[in-house]
UniProtKB/TrEMBL annotation:
It is found in: Secreted, Extracellular space. PANTHER family: ASPARTYL PROTEASE-RELATED (PTHR47965), BASIC 7S GLOBULIN-LIKE (PTHR47965:SF68). This is Aspartic proteinase GIP2. Residues 1-21 form the signal peptide. It comes from Sesamum angolense.
Length: 375
């Protein structure tokens, strides 16, 4: 009897382990209200050191500050914020609550002074760039999963970072709203330090034009394309707070949004830095999807394919009386013409499929009476 019971328990343990491995890794995402950064929680090593890393789509690999160094390898670290020199790479087991541990997880160990500018309490980065040692690639390789991951940044509550693909329940909830567009490769690295010939490992999409309130902005096509030096184009960032666009895009965008807002009887008011187009909150009506304001569409290749930025994603309430267009002027000489920021990603489901080189996206879930915290 005892041996039968042990056999049953062992079989159940194997099933649970296989199920966890097959499903990959699901991590909670929280928003830091002060910095507008997004973070998760994991544990590292046999002492289960608590790590609170910031979610960074542009970081080439994960890093952490820990007090008890794990087995190491020499390294020189580069991530999405700038050049960071660390003493070593660490190799240890990664733990997430109630899930299969990730063995021999490779990450960069760095000094705490390099964490300046991150949310209070943050002591690492989750690297999600298109590299061999990113979090998603390591999990995919160790659990024999397709290299894909999804991100759903919450405006409140808990969002999800799912490695290996979203759950079936998530897909059944939002599958009808998902659109797809190719992930394209910038032929020149956008990292602060790189070798000649290295392509970018950040995530670019082929935005063709921008519409405001249904009207296409008058902008040169060259700003949306990537030239031979890797300048231009559109990338997605979880570190950039608000979408930053080239000055030659920002000016017609702000004008077009202000005009469309006026047509909706929304009153303009004095600008509040870093924003240029601001409005009286009292003149804006409310909907379940946020403020009722003009829509901004990023037009993509294909028949009627566009990423709609509306409501709470299009504007930000800077104080009780003022609401502003949540885009900033990226200057007249940015490396990338359009950097889609985290505010525009909130309550949008995004799946990065590195197998098919596709981005699947939902636009605002709030429009569907859903949110990242309810998926």
């Amino acid at each position: 009897m005892a041996s039968s019971r042990c056999a049953i328990l062992l079989f159940l343990a194997i099933l649970i382990s296989a199920s966890n491995a097959q499903n990959g890794l699901i991590l909670p995402i929280r928003k830091d209200a002060k910095t507008y950064q997004f973070y998760t929680t994991v544990e590292l090593g046999s002492n289960r050191a608590a790590i609170t890393p910031i979610i960074d789509l542009g970081a080439q690999y994960s890093n952490a500050t820990i007090t008890s160094p794990p087995p190491t390898r020499p390294s020189h670290v580069v991530h999405g914020h700038g050049v960071v020199v660390s003493e070593f790479f660490g190799v240890d087991t990664l733990y997430a609550k109630n899930q299969q541990p990730v063995p021999e997880y490779l990450f960069s160990c760095m000094e705490s002074r390099f964490m300046e500018g991150l949310a209070s309490g943050a002591n690492g980065l989750v690297g999600l760039a298109r590299t061999e040692i990113s979090l998603h690639k390591q999990v995919a390789n160790k659990f024999n999963l397709p290299d894909r991951f999804s991100v759903c940044l919450p405006s409140s509550g808990l969002g999800k970072l799912s490695i290996g693909g979203p759950s079936s329940s998530t897909l059944s909830t939002i599958s009808k709203s998902l659109k797809a567009t190719p992930l394209i490769v910038n032929p020149v690295s956008t990292a602060p330090s790189y070798a000649v010939g290295d392509p970018s490992d950040e995530y670019f999409i082929d935005v063709k034009s921008i519409r405001v309130g249904g009207e296409t902005l008058s902008v040169k096509n060259s700003y949306f394309s990537i030239d031979k030096d890797g300048v231009g184009g559109t990338k997605i960032s979880t570190i950039q707070n608000f979408t930053a666009v080239h000055n030659s895009i920002y000016k017609p965008l702000a004008r077009g949004f202000t005009k469309a807002a006026a047509d909706m009887k929304i009153r303009s008011v004095a600008a509040v830095e870093p924003f240029r187009a601001c409005f009286s909150s009292d003149s804006i009506s409310r909907t379940p999807a946020g403020p009722s304001v003009p829509t901004v569409d990023l037009v993509l290749p294909g028949n009627d394919i566009y990423w709609r930025i509306s409501g709470a994603n299009a504007v930000v309430e800077v104080n009780q009386r003022t609401t502003c267009l949540a885009f900033v002027d990226g200057g007249s000489n940015p490396r990338t013409s359009v950097v889609i920021g985290a505010h525009q990603l909130e309550d949008n489901f995004l799946e990065f499929d590195l197998v098919s080189s596709q981005l699947k996206f939902s636009s605002s879930l709030l429009v569907q009476n859903q949110s990242c915290s309810r998926l």
